[in-house]
């Protein structure tokens, strides 16, 4: 069976910047695959090559069995794309935009009306179908963007940061829709900065950093490879160096967000009383202590030596979109 996505030694440069640096990747049929990484890691640049908006500098890629350079037209007919910076005319209604998208794909009027009604209902926009898009909330626009990407029933769906800026309820609703699409057989390629999103949606993930894939596999397997739970401790800033020396007696240092100390704790919660006693003997009073089982954030830290910015809060800024002549995302 043809793999929906295959990339071999894929490279994209912008001047001296190697935004994507020799990526090899294969996505299996009917899989949800997540590309996880921080701002500037190369996620959006990689997706733009796969959807034929950017030409690779080197290497090759095939999507839905077609070469992204030499068979770009066939690739576009086989895929659905919902990018972060999709341009949606605010003066048109949701229904009008679906009709326009269908016309661009050469879909007949009767099928368009039937398909449009189904999609608007599926993404929860039936009541807003005849309102101008300029009146839609951010979550409604993202759901409309998803509906537009599905008009022609694509084999492969690309979602670039699909829930950035959405409130928690809108995010969960979109996750449910992605699961439903995948259950119907659609292969989904997702880029995200949200660890929970990757963990809940994807069967496999790849972590990209500085244009290179640094980890790849199933979330549970990647977390198991990290090993012991992580202890996070917050202490007064003037005692941080002494506290770190104490903590390092019990486990190896782990990168953490600013203001917190972290170590891998081989004995898990069982080691906690010993840590507390050692801090007390050093006359260091912790402001907070928390122990966590390995997470995707720990996987990212283990692979890159730092935490994914904003990971613990679950909120991140948008990745700058790459342009044909600008710097990479």
What does this structure look like?
With 329 residues, this protein is of the alpha/beta class. The protein has 2 domains: 5-223, P-loop containing nucleotide triphosphate hydrolases (Rossmann fold), CATH 3.40.50.300; 230-292, 2-Layer Sandwich (Alpha-Beta Plaits). Helix content is 34%, strand content 23%. The chain contains 11 helices and 13 strands. The chain has helices at residues 43-50, 72-78, 94-104, 109-122, 138-150, 168-183, 195-201, 219-226, 240-247, 272-281, 296-304; strands at 5-14, 17-27, 32-36, 58-63, 66-67, 79-82, 156-160, 187-192, 204-209, 212-217, 230-234, 261-264, 288-292. The strands form 3 sheets. The protein has a 6-stranded mixed β-sheet, with helices on both faces. It is elongated, with a radius of gyration of 23 Å. Mean pLDDT is 87; it is low at 312-329.
């Amino acid at each position: 069976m043809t793999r929906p996505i295959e990339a071999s030694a894929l490279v994209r440069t912008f001047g001296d910047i190697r935004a994507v640096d020799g990526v090899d990747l294969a996505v299996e049929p009917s899989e949800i695959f997540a590309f996880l990484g921080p701002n500037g890691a190369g996620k959006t640049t990689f997706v733009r090559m796969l959807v034929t908006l950017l030409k690779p500098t080197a290497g090759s890629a095939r999507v839905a069995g077609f070469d992204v350079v030499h068979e770009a037209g066939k690739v576009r007919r086989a895929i659905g794309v919902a990018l972060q910076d999709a341009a949606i005319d605010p003066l048109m209604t949701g229904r009008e935009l679906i009709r326009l998208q269908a016309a661009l794909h050469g879909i007949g009027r009767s099928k368009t009306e039937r398909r449009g009604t189904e999609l608007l209902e599926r993404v929860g926009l039936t009541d807003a179908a005849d309102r101008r898009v300029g009146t839609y909330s951010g979550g409604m626009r993202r759901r409309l963007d998803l509906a537009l990407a599905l008009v022609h029933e694509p084999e492969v769906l690309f979602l670039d940061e699909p829930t950035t800026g959405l409130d928690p309820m809108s995010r969960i609703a979109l996750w449910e829709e992605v699961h439903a699409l995948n259950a119907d057989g659609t292969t989904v390629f997702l880029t995200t900065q949200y660890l929970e999103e990757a963990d809940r949606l994807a069967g496999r993930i790849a972590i990209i950093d500085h244009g290179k894939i640094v980890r790849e596999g199933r979330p549970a397997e990647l977390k198991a490879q990290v090993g012991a739970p992580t202890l996070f401790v917050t202490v007064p800033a003037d005692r941080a160096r002494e506290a770190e020396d104490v903590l390092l007696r019990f486990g190896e240092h782990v990168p953490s967000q600013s203001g917190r100390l972290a170590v891998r704790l081989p004995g898990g919660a069982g080691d906690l009383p010993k840590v507390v006693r050692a801090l007390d003997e050093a006359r260091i009073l912790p402001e907070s202590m928390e122990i966590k089982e390995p997470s995707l954030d720990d996987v990212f830290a283990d692979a890159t030596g730092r935490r994914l910015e904003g990971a613990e809060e679950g909120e991140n800024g948008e990745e700058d979109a790459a342009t044909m002549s600008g710097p990479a995302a």
